[in-house]
Design brief:
The protein is α/β, with parallel strands linked by helices and about 900 residues long. The strands form six sheets. A six-stranded mixed β-sheet has the order 3-2-1-4-5-6, with helices on both faces. The chain binds a DNA duplex (9 and 15 nucleotides) through helix 23, helix 25, strand 16, helix 30 and helix 31. Belongs to the DNA polymerase type-A family.
Amino acid sequence: MTESKRLLLIDGNSVAFRAFFALYTALNSMTNADGLHTNAIFGFNRMLDIMLEDVKPTDALVAFDAGKVTFRTKKYADYKGGRSKTPPELSEQMPVIRQLLAARGIKSYELKNYEADDIIGTMAKQAETAGYETTIFTGDRDLTQLTSDKTSVAVSKKGVTEVETYTPEHVEEKLGVRPDQIIEIKGLQGDTSDNYPGVTGVGPKTAVSLIQKYGTIDGVYENMDKITAKKMKEHLIEDKDSAFQSRDLATIRRDAPIEIKLSDLTYKGDQQDELVKFYQEMNFQSYLNKMNTDAGDEDVLGLKPVEFTVLTADNLNELAQFKDHVSFYLEMPDANYHTSTFAGFVIGEGDKWFVSRDVELLKQAPVKDLLTSDKVQKDVFDLKRTYVGLNRLGIHLSNVDFDLLLASYLLDTNENSNDLGRLAFQHGYHQIQSDEEVYGKGAKRAIPDDDQLFFEHLTRKGITIESLKKSLFKQLDENEQTKLYRDLELPMAYVLAHMEIAGIMVDTDRLSAMQSEFTELLAQTQQTIFQEAGEEFNIGSPKQLQHILFEKLGLTPIKKTKTGYSTSVDVLEKLAAEAPIVENILKYRQISKIQSTYVEGLLKVVHSTDQKVHTRYLQTLTQTGRLSSVDPNLQNIPIRTEEGRRIRQAFIPSHKGWQIFSSDYSQIELRVLAHITHDKNLQEAFKEGDDIHASTARRIFHLGPDAEIDPNMRRQAKAVNFGIVYGISDFGLSQNIGITRKQARQFIDTYFEEYPGVKQYMTDIVASAKDKGYVETIAHRRRYLPDINARNFNQRSFAERTAMNTPIQGSAADIIKIAMIKMEDAIKDLQATMLLQVHDELIFEAPAEEIPTLEKLVPSVMDSAVKLEIPLKVESHYGNTWYEAK
DNA sequence: CTTTTCACG
DNA sequence: ACGTACGTGAAAAGC
């Protein structure tokens, strides 16, 4: 060998398929002048770039499937039967992908009666003989059977850029068998997506263990006398033909009658003229100028130049030109905008953009007037962040019309990002880079020193906000989400900003006292555990704990995790009777959790300036419309155990003589369920003011109206009610309350008989989700469920449960948000301040003399937030600390 | 950077 | 037969 040859073999259909779905959300925004969809072509090209860069091939081939009929379908008519057909939006792109390949100097090939796999298998074999290094690129894991010393298989995982590369060692590590044994596994377990059966009752686990033992399917049948499991043996005998046939179907051919030779595969590289023409036809601006041609005036990344003016004290007055409208972006490099430094800002409209690193300028009249004006509309990215940032500079942002981040979140909770550039890309706008690309990531992330670079990026942010406004508003309108945006989420951003800025006072002395107390307790418990274990070890390490419990002390493992035996609470509780050490470990875990996460964690984030914690509510994160809380998370402060609950003693009012006041919705999710299902029986219980879990117990256990409900029945009924809200499964319920799956099934069946409206709703909502692809809340909040029609049972089941749960959890989130907006207005003349929201609960601080007013006012605002078919119920508590407000 | 565990609704 | 409850965030360990 004089020079090394590197061959790149690409599975054209499977990669195109991956590219299409990776950019599925961009489907409608990516079309060329002729209306041709281009997302798969674009994605394919991106993936191609990555592979070419990675492999630097001397030779390359893209193999395509020749059509539906192959030698496999001739042998087995149902092969790949039942597959939903390729979407027309993808089919139309397939021939164009071949044009792309031609322009990029790569040969494509297909062969009648054979699949792309077989072409690749055959070519890879020839290449091996000829001493080539081969890389196969595909979206299909089945091709990993072709790995060898000379051949690796790169499988695209998710998105366009993520790839997992398989070598024989990696295959063995991941699957537990050698590459050549993959077909044996497939023969036994079959393949649902290719639609061949294998052996009944044999799934991946069984198949792998059989092949590990006997090497091949032939080996299995030669050793039938050693197989003791009766049912499995019967199935193996029964399905013997099927096993061999399935293996045959799974086997990629390495001797397909291909008419091309290795020497035909030379990678010629980009055909400049042809490729320019192609990119122009596809409207691929970014690629066009990556090629460094003069076909446009963009830079290497395909970005058109932008113009900006650096704002100074001398040209401030130019801002007076903006009379009706500006886009504004305030750059704060750290995620936490309560403490972040300020890096700069951009403000402007159309082709007039002003930028600066000096945020002090914002305090000057012309800029400040613009931002606070009720006449000039502002468009931003992340209103709450911008509001809090400006508030720190003494500027009260007002009259925001468009928030790109918020609007985008409402349109699709799945495809959302806090990165303006990345989010813009998802909406089909490419004239900006992501922050990650410009600023870097991880430890290297930094605002560039280069003014030109930084200011251009800022300017593009302003332009991006302006450019996407119209289209996103239009989409909100089409989704009937304008009201949700304008009357709910946009006002919500201000309310949350006010709450975050207010913060809640922390009694650090109290926390410090608890810290010493827990340190002592932990030390004691630790010593006891070491004695019981007979050695010292790190109790906080699951790995070391496993060793002590299951190896040294010989306790029985109950549950496995990916890496070993589980030591979680439910496991330890079952083991508690076997050894006293277990109880102590549970105690240690509980205290050390409270100590590290709450006592020490909270002390770390108290602002030294005001002795308060200022959380950030993430308004655009959850899939259901709930808020989440970070830095610190104030939505998971302990309450269920007394030791933990004491943390709440450290949350106190910020003024002397004030109280903490809290109101929570009682059973809001079940009430929402009663409302949206219209179930008569469930509604009746709420209208009568019954104890809902007792009422459910009465029904599912068929008890008379006067019968006593014992606590255990009520507990079980409560679990059933929870299960219903979560999208019930018999397994889940059985696990939760420790009954058999059969009993759980019985409970569920009875529940549905007693509450037929609920049953009907569950059926309908799943059907509707399958039909429309999304579910909605009462305020038209939307959640798309791409997996609702998945062939994979687990993915599909998960999506179905989500379809049942999201309208309930999400509508409850809508309700409390509406209440919060009304609340801010209702208490505006009081000194009382709203501080926290914990999903179904609002927490305030107020002077003691206002408590009687709040006791009437707050519940009335909350229970009248929306009109449902059943009443809402609110309970209130107050005290000197959050702990006492119970 | 991922995994495990555990805190909340 | 599959392998699960729904929605979150933080800490620590161990790669």
